């Protein structure tokens, strides 16, 4: 490593090495000087050394050396003279760009020279051999050998400069200029890969700028100048991305601009916002997000209408037509129907991001389609006055597609409008940020919308239609395309139709049993039928336990599933909590380690700083002493020289005098010499004063004589010029009189021609005024008729609404009366049933009481002929009761009503009915009376057997 006492020596050494062709040694020598710690104080020589160093780096394409040198030079002049660093960097970029352009021009010249070398032969033999060996063309080979290395070096230059200036608040303008030149480089040479890397580099610089806020020279984004530079850089990035058709990078650039606006919480100038929304329209159209494309056009229209004072009516009409056509191009149905939960969440997050980009702040908890939708956009266009600015063709198309119901004539009326709209568009004269507007790009989407509207309206009118008829009604597409469009519409629930290719027809509507309108009614009807069948034909067997468990099994499974999900979520939360605790512990340990390391580094820095200050103070004191000693010696030498000239002895001897006394003597000698010099100057000034006064006294009469002579000459000149002016005026007057007399002959003709012209113009004016009054009367009459028609329509609509409201109220009143009547009938029927049940219970109690009395009477009148068996349990032997009197039997038979066939009879009444039946004629015991006058009682065993059989 070479060391130089002065920077000038290093510069001279480098020039000597360059002259003998040793550029690498010269570069190394300058690099050693720049990176040396001995020369850290800025001086003008270092700037010249940096210029030479940069030139060597560019000549040898040493980007790494250039970067190291610029970093060291930034350390030297950051706080002293930052303008010098700016000049060096500009020189660096200028040289790199110049050499790249030179290499490109050399490659072009070489290619042209190779092309016109031989006019008779197509290619030279060596070119043919080289092409067979390498497989490359001449231009590709020359680019690879000459142009590509310099382009790589130029790209490395831009990266180096951006890296050096990324956190420098004093060179923000240079940073922005470098970024703009790098963007233009990528645009000019179609370097898409380098453009993506450049955008990522600038994005990382801004992220680090926000991350490390405690840096010394960090740019302040809250300052208006800094914010404007950063915004200009991002907008230039957005423009280049759209021109290179890098739409993903353009979208990320838009997000960068939006993030920068959110970061500083300031809205840029309207001119920049116009560019922002203009590029958003292109990005959303390419990505297929037609809804957000339309919202971006709407924002652009609002900005142009509010802030662009030079916007004429034609341009405003064209922009408004673009807004309406973009809104109509949005699909009329939601394409996310039937999507999975993950897709819906992804779509929701995407909609939230794009809504924020176009300036709509929505709640992420809500469904975004409830906030930004096609219907809300069209309603907003109508309320904000956009529809009043569009072309008549666009307005007619909007009414046909959104408000008219013409299932058979819709396509035939839409097609000529689309043909006219496709021819509209062109350059805008007053909206510079939106150079061109072409409405033909919306034609395919509008044709698809017209097809969907036609299918929707036809489905409301027809149930079946032939495929040929439907194809003839849609002139935009063939039936295969129409079928694809209808499949997506049916999938998303916009229309209901089926295509039967075997029969060649299209079926509209849901006529099957799977219809949503019939499903519930059929289910209720099936359940009612099942209940009625169960009541008529009861099941013979018991239902299995599995049938009883099945209804509650789904609920049990659902509860178990929820419990497992809850347990899983609890486990995941515990895992997350544990991981969070571990991360917190690691973060705390890392913070402690960093804090300890920072304390150690700060102590080391303080120690080094104190040592450096101490060495610096010692060096300064030593330099001051040396400088004072040199000055004293110089003063002593001057005093000796003056003493020798005047023949005097030396004032003092050098070894016996001190530095202070020597300086005092030198100062006193200087003071004495200064006083002598002042005396000499006073004497000389007095002499010069006398001399000048004498000169002026001699020159004053000469000056007066010259002045008088000059007055005489100027008076004569004035009189001569005045005579010439009078003569010229007289000649002009005579000529004008002659011209007047010559033209006076035509005065009558001039008056006649003037009257003729005035009469013709007056007649034309009267005719135009009459036509205008007639046209105004027609327009007033037409508007009066339109207002009358509108009032009639409004009156009819109000009357129709009033009639429907009255019908609705009458229907509601009828329903309430019907419900009240049913409620009263139900209450009466319930009261009658309760009364009948009460009577039935009363009758049963009376029968029970009569049965009890009859049994007691039977038990009290039993005779000795009654045989009992005490040793058999439960009355296994029959008991023969005594005969009942005929009157009691008749009363009992009269009290017990005859059982009705098919009617339910209680168990206690079954015994009573059996007991009053007449005994068979072959019974051996009688009561003593004749068989016709008294009734016989059956035996106990026969009665028990009868009850058992009835059971």
From TrEMBL:
InterPro entries: EIF3A, eIF3a_PCI_TPR-like, PCI_dom. One of its GO terms (cellular component) is eukaryotic translation initiation factor 3 complex, eIF3e. Residues 561-642, 667-697 form a coiled coil. Residues 881-897 have a biased composition (Low complexity). GO terms for molecular function: mRNA binding; translation initiation factor activity. GO terms for biological process: formation of cytoplasmic translation initiation complex; translation reinitiation. Keywords: Coiled coil, Cytoplasm, Initiation factor, Protein biosynthesis, RNA-binding. Residues 939-951 have a biased composition (Polar residues). Residues 810-858 have a biased composition (Basic and acidic residues). It is found in: Cytoplasm. Transmembrane segments: none annotated. It comes from the Eukaryota. Residues 316-513 form the PCI domain. Its main location: cytoplasm. It holds the Pfam family PCI. Residues 810-951 are annotated as: Disordered. Component of the eukaryotic translation initiation factor 3 (eIF-3) complex. Belongs to the eIF-3 subunit A family. RNA-binding component of the eukaryotic translation initiation factor 3 (eIF-3) complex, which is involved in protein synthesis of a specialized repertoire of mRNAs and, together with other initiation factors, stimulates binding of mRNA and methionyl-tRNAi to the 40S ribosome. The eIF-3 complex specifically targets and initiates translation of a subset of mRNAs involved in cell proliferation. This is Eukaryotic translation initiation factor 3 subunit A. The lineage of its organism: Eukaryota, Viridiplantae, Streptophyta, Embryophyta, Tracheophyta.
